[in-house]
Specification:
Keywords: Membrane, Transmembrane, Transmembrane helix. The protein is an all-alpha fold. The chain has helices at 9-13, 40-65, 76-101, 103-124, 127-144.
């Protein structure tokens, strides 16, 4: 008997058999915890890591070590790549929150977070503190959402 993928879905979602129960239920392991690999929050996590790496490479490596002035004229490609990564992260964040909150509320949440938290932190915390905080926060989220 061959089951297609849709018919076998309830069988795959079934948990492991309890101890001492000898019924005909097969031993199927539960799915791995966490979000699926193609979930919008996973995409947002990846683009945030790429954007943070790109920022660190240019701000710290090129600016501090090679003593180059970090500005748009010197790093046009990196600036455009950062803008695209921020846009992808923004869209994936909206896509992951919109089924729960709706489109308008999601935009309000994102704008409130951007202006209420990120912009305030960027203005109040010096660059070395931002670098330390970004390292700590990215390490935490990498461990949290493997």
């Amino acid at each position: 008997m061959n089951l297609d993928l849709e018919q076998s879905a309830p069988l795959r979602r079934r948990g492991p058999r309890p101890e001492g129960n000898d019924d005909a239920m097969p031993m199927i392991p539960p799915p791995p915890p966490g979000l699926p690999p193609r979930h919008p929050l996973q995409l947002m996590k990846r683009t945030a890591i790429m954007g943070g790496t790109l920022y660190a490479m240019h701000e710290l490596y090129q600016g501090k070590k090679n003593k180059k002035k970090v500005e748009y004229e010197n790093f046009r490609a990196a600036t455009h790549a950062s803008i695209v990564l921020i846009l992808i992260a923004w869209i994936s964040f909206h896509k992951s929150l919109s089924p729960l909150y709706g489109g308008f509320k999601t935009m309000l949440i994102m704008i409130g977070f951007g202006f209420g938290v990120l912009l305030q932190a960027a203005l109040m915390i010096p660059v070395w503190g931002q670098n330390f905080l970004s390292f700590v926060i990215l390490t935490f989220f990498l461990q949290q959402y493997k």
